[in-house]
Amino acid sequence: MKQAIIYCRFSPRPNADECESNKHQRHRCETYCIFRRYDVIHIFEDVSVSGRKRNRPQLNAAIAALEPGMVLIVDRNDRLARDMLVALTIHHEVEQLGCTIEFADGSPMRNTPEGKLFSNLLSAFAQFERERFAIRTKDGMARKKAEGVWCGRPPYGWRKIKGQNELVKDEGEQRVLSEIVYRNSKGYSSGAIVAYLHGILVTCRGRPWSARTIRRILARKNKVA
Hints:
The protein has 2 domains: 3-134, 3-Layer(aba) Sandwich (Rossmann fold); 158-224, no CATH class. Helix content is 51%, strand content 14%. It has helices at residues 22-36, 57-65, 77-80, 84-96, 113-146, 171-185, 190-199, 211-224, and strands at 3-10, 39-47, 71-74, 100-103, 158-160, 167-169. Strand 1 (3-10), helix 1 and strand 2 (39-47) form a beta-alpha-beta unit. Helix 4 (84-96) runs antiparallel to helix 5.
């Protein structure tokens, strides 16, 4: 009996029907393995991880657990990757180990020229859809911004009142901003400003300050000025 490793990846999206939870993926993969009479020895699941990234903790663990002759089972092509280069890289790594990748949705395997072509086409379409989604998201945020709706986390020094679209000044953070700008004007480096803020026990919204955060705040203030 051939041994199999199941890999699932879930990347939440605004529309629930655009993605499948790991639970549903795992069920389909296990059903596929029963049909193929594969012995499932491991199940690895990445949660909230983008399909355009090659370096994923559980994917790395799944590939590391493969031994010659094993098969890596994935629900469908876009659960493996949403970037064609990433998909090809993963296929190459698995094949170099003497293993294969099979998809529970019945997509052709890459052990034939036709299978490789079909797999590459699916990877290309997955990348195409990811890029379309990114464009739709960017356009949607631009429309909201044009309507005066703030999208995302307010910049330091500002806060958003629940139920309102506009930002209002946070007086406490504004005082810290003024101190940062003042000390910068006196020649303090970003590291020295961080040390000063740490010394008076001022955090950046509950987190330690960093020189990078200081530089980003100063760049934003200079841009506005």
